[in-house]
TrEMBL record:
This is Phenylalanine--tRNA ligase, mitochondrial. Its EC number is 6.1.1.20. It catalyses: tRNA(Phe) + L-phenylalanine + ATP = L-phenylalanyl-tRNA(Phe) + AMP + diphosphate + H(+). Residues 347-440 form the FDX-ACB domain.
Length: 440
């Protein structure tokens, strides 16, 4: 999961070329059908057929699916919370970004990073998109699990659809609310003290992770403490049994300062699992304007968001993110609702590498996410990996040439060289039609 925090901003700080090639194949005006409804397209439309086909699947609600078991495991840890899992993935950019105080120039808004039905409607890029709506309904303790959509590269750990669970708790900003939090903090701290967990913490507040002007720092400290205790205890619930944590070998959890537009102070949580620090979630004390937008100005509280695939991949030892979408009985029949078991890989079929090289029109760039969506539209889940292997600018003509290496490998069957050639020929022809590039 790429968090909408500091790390994400750094990734995007690398120079963004000024002119991306437009997809010439999008006819305007026309319609696109999404979840049975027709919508007008416009200059922002970039939702692809592959993505449209994923919308009804909701893997997190399919019984026995690893993502559904993981959702259940998280929900069972918060039994008194409202559990939501069927909100529509179609949201307005206003819900996804503005209501959460994303700056107007945030890179997440661009058509190269997010999927738009048209300028007024998009696929949620994170479950936080529903925060204002859910608080507005009067919910004060809730979890929401859903499919989210982001344009991305293609490899074994990135997929343009993934799943997140959002969790939040708000209380009245008065002595009654604070008493409720204090009592809960005592209960959680007592439980954690008896558990095999080692926590590397950061202060609840610091000059680089400050209290919001609207808040009393004492209240913020209590809320941040409740957030940390609640999530440390969730980490214990998810991981401790799996690593056989003991007093001598405790589960290691570390907290890191972060930045999110709709929380202050903000944090990220990492867990040490099978020899690596895994980035698990982002969280923080909810920015007061977010609660004002939901008409609950008299409350304060915390929120977190975690990505399910990354956690499920390590818990079940699932090596490739595409497997979650597999309909192969050899995959699906391995799992039972509520049980975490180690995935037994069935034979891995041979990889088939094909290169695609082309010249771009002068002064133009092709965004890697546009290239990857095109490859997915042609080859679906038969594409395992796409890598840029050459990027060359001709010294005289100043024209740019790119070469991508595509790894075609089915998860379910052996792919013949003829099939891979035919897929690659379709990629080439589609590339020519959509972006008017010159194949080399
Ligand atoms: N929505 C964030 C993302 O996808 C994750 C997140 C961070 C959710 C902080 C939160 C939060 O609720 O408080 O990157």
């Amino acid at each position: 999961m790429r968090l909408y925090g500091s790390l994400w901003r750094n990734i995007h700080a690398r120079g963004v070329p000024s002119r991306y090639l437009a997809n010439m194949a999008v006819q305007r005006p026309c319609h696109v059908t999404v979840l049975g409804e027709q919508y007008l397209t416009d200059h922002m439309t970039n939702i692809s057929p592959t993505i449209v086909s994923k919308l009804p699947l909701k893997l997190h609600t399919q019984p026995s699916h690893p993502l559904s078991t993981l959702r259940g495991l998280i929900e069972s840890h918060f039994p008194s919370y409202t559990h939501l899992s069927s909100l529509s993935p179609l949201v307005t950019p206003y819900q996804n970004f503005d209501l959460l105080s994303f700056p107007k120039d945030h890179p997440g808004r661009s058509v190269t990073d997010s999927y738009y039905v048209n300028k007024d409607l998009m696929l949620r890029t994170h479950t936080s998109a529903h925060e204002v709506e859910v608080f507005g309904r009067g919910e004060t303790k809730w979890l929401l699990t859903a499919d989210v959509y982001r344009r991305d590269e293609i490899d074994g750990s990135h997929y343009p659809v993934f799943h997140q669970t959002e969790g939040a708790r708000i209380v009245s900003a008065n002595s009654t609310g604070m008493k409720e939090i204090e009592e809960d903090n005592e209960r959680l701290a007592a439980h954690l003290e008896q558990s095999s967990i080692e926590i590397e913490d950061v202060p609840h507040l610091s000059p680089t992770n400050p209290c919001q002007p609207a808040h009393d720092p004492k209240h913020t400290e209590l809320i941040a403490k409740n957030l940390k205790l609640s999530l440390n205890s969730l980490m214990l619930h998810l991981f401790a049994g799996r690593v056989g944590a003991t007093a001598q070998n405790p589960l290691k959890v570390r907290w890191i300062e972060a930045t999110f537009p709709w929380t202050t102070p903000s944090f990220e949580v990492e867990v040490f699992f099978r020899g690596k620090w895994l980035e698990i979630l982002g969280c923080g004390v909810i920015y007061q304007p977010t609660l004002d937008n939901a008409n609950v100005s008299n409350k304060l509280g915390w929120a977190f968001g975690l990505g399910l695939e990354r956690i499920a991949m390590v818990l079940y030892s699932i090596p490739d993110i595409r497997l979650f979408w597999s309909q192969d009985p050899r995959f699906l029949s391995q799992f039972k609702q509520g049980e975490i078991t180690t995935f037994k890989p069935y034979s891995k079929y041979p990889a088939c590498f094909k290169d695609v090289s082309f010249w771009l029109p002068e002064g133009q760039m092709l965004h890697e996410n546009d290239f990857c969506d095109l490859v997915r539209d042609v080859a679906g889940d038969v594409v395992e990996d796409v890598k840029l292997i050459d990027d060359f600018t001709h010294p005289k003509t100043n024209r740019k040439s790119l070469c991508y290496r595509i790894n075609y490998r089915s998860m379910d069957r052996s792919l013949s060289n003829d099939e891979a050639n035919s897929l690659n020929a379709q990629v080439v022809s589609c590339l020519r039609d959509r972006f008017r590039v010159e194949i080399r």
